[in-house]
Write a structure and sequence with these properties.
Blueprint: H1 36-59, E1 66-69, E2 90-95, E3 101-105, H2 109-121, H3 129-137, E4 158-161, E5 164-166, H4 169-179, E6 186-190, H5 196-202, E7 207-212, H6 215-227, E8 233-237, E9 250-259, H7 264-267, E10 270-282, E11 285-294, E12 297-305, H8 316-321
Parallel strand pairs: 6-7, 6-9, 7-8, 9-10
Antiparallel strand pairs: 1-2, 2-3, 4-5, 10-11, 11-12
Helix pairs in contact: 2-4
Length: about 325
C-alpha cells in the first residue's frame, strides 16, 4: 500500500493570497513539479532560432527571408507547466514593397505522401509492397502543374488542362494491384500527362512506354522522368488510340483516363495472356475493367468503380466518325 505523507512547504508570500477553502487549507500545493526538460527544450529551440537569424544577417538580407517558429499553447500532459511547445510550423516571411509580410507555409510533401498511402491506398485493399513502396517514393507534387502542387495528394481528380485530369491515387493503386506487374514485363501507359503513372509503374516493370498526344505534356514528362532518375521509361508523341506498335507487343496496357470504346488496333499490341486496365464511362457511371488476352480475344471483368473525364480519342463520337 502506498502512503502519501504531507510535507509542509513554507510560503514565501504569506498573507498576500486568498486561499480557496473548498480545495485545501494552504495556498501551496502538496507537490511541486519541476521539469528541467521543458526548460531544456525551450533553450534548444531558442538557440536554434537565434542561429538561423544570425545566418540570415551574416549571409543575406534578414528582411528578405526570415524563418520563424510559432509556439502553440500546450496541453498539461507534457508536465512542463502551463505553457510548452506543442508544435512548430515553419513559415517563410517575405515582405512586399510596402513592408507588409506575407507568410508562405513550407509544405511537408513527404508527410502528405505517407498520409495519402495510409488513408487512400491501404484502405482500398492495396497492400502489395511494390505498389506501396513506389507510391511512397515518387513525389507526386512534381508531376502536376505548379498551380496544383498543394492539391497533389487530395483524394480526387487533378485538373491538367484541356479537359484532361490526373486520376485519383486510389484508382491508380487499384489498377496496378489488379494488373500485378512484374519486373520482367513491358508496360504501355496511355495518356500519362506529366508522367506520374509512368514513374510509379517504372519501379515495378522492366520498361514503361508512354504515349501522349500533347507535345507540351510529353516534353514536360520526359524532363521530369529524367530529373527523377527514371531510366527505364520513354515517352512517345502521337495519337493516343494508336498506341506505340513499334515497341510492342506489351505485357500490360493501362489507360490514364476514361474511355467509351477501345480500338482493335490497340488490343492487337497486347501480348497473349497480357492484361489491360481501362476506366469505362457510361453516363455518370465509371467502372474499371481488367481485360486478359487469350486465344487472340480479350475477355473483360469488372474490378471497381471510379471516375475520370473521357479521353477524346476514346469517345464513342470519335469511333463513329472513324
Amino acid at each position: 500500500m502506498i502512503v502519501f505523507k504531507w510535507r509542509r512547504v513554507p510560503e514565501s508570500n504569506r498573507c498576500t493570497r486568498i486561499c480557496n477553502p473548498l480545495r485545501h487549507h494552504s495556498a501551496n500545493s502538496p507537490f511541486q513539479v519541476k521539469s528541467n526538460t521543458c526548460r531544456g527544450v525551450r533553450g534548444v529551440l531558442a538557440a536554434f532560432q537565434e542561429g538561423v537569424q544570425w545566418i540570415a544577417c551574416k549571409f543575406g538580407d534578414k528582411n528578405e527571408f526570415r524563418m520563424s517558429w510559432r509556439r502553440i499553447i500546450s496541453t498539461p500532459w507534457l508536465g512542463c507547466g502551463n505553457r510548452a511547445v506543442a508544435g512548430r510550423v515553419r513559415m517563410w516571411h517575405k515582405p512586399d514593397i510596402y513592408g507588409n509580410e506575407t507568410r508562405y507555409p513550407m509544405t511537408d510533401f513527404a508527410t502528405r505522401r505517407r498520409t495519402m498511402v495510409d488513408t487512400q491506398v491501404r484502405p482500398s485493399d492495396v497492400t502489395k509492397f511494390p505498389i506501396i513502396e513506389a507510391m511512397l517514393s515518387v513525389p507526386r507534387e512534381n508531376f502536376v502543374p505548379d498551380a496544383q502542387r498543394e492539391a497533389a495528394y487530395v483524394d480526387g481528380l487533378i485538373d491538367m488542362g484541356e479537359g484532361r485530369a490526373m486520376i485519383e491515387p486510389r484508382t491508380l493503386a487499384k489498377m496496378l494491384d489488379a494488373l500485378n506487374i512484374s519486373n520482367d514485363e513491358m508496360v504501355l501507359d496511355i495518356a500519362p500527362a506529366m508522367g506520374y503513372s509512368m514513374a510509379v509503374a517504372a519501379r515495378m516493370a522492366q520498361l514503361v512506354v508512354g504515349v501522349e498526344s500533347n507535345e507540351a505534356l510529353a516534353a514536360e514528362a520526359q524532363s521530369l522522368l529524367a530529373e527523377a532518375d527514371v531510366d527505364n521509361a520513354i515517352i512517345h508523341v502521337g495519337p493516343l488510340e494508336q498506341g506505340v506498335a513499334e515497341h510492342g507487343p506489351y505485357d500490360v496496357i493501362m489507360v490514364q483516363g476514361g474511355v467509351e470504346q477501345i480500338p482493335e488496333g490497340l488490343l492487337d499490341q497486347l501480348k497473349e495472356h497480357g492484361r489491360i486496365a481501362c476506366l469505362f464511362v457510361d453516363g455518370n457511371l465509371g467502372t474499371v475493367r481488367i481485360g486478359r488476352k487469350s486465344g487472340g480475344q480479350v475477355s473483360w471483368r469488372d474490378a471497381f468503380n471510379a471516375s475520370a473525364p473521357v479521353l477524346e480519342s476514346f469517345s464513342a463520337e470519335c469511333a463513329f466518325s472513324l
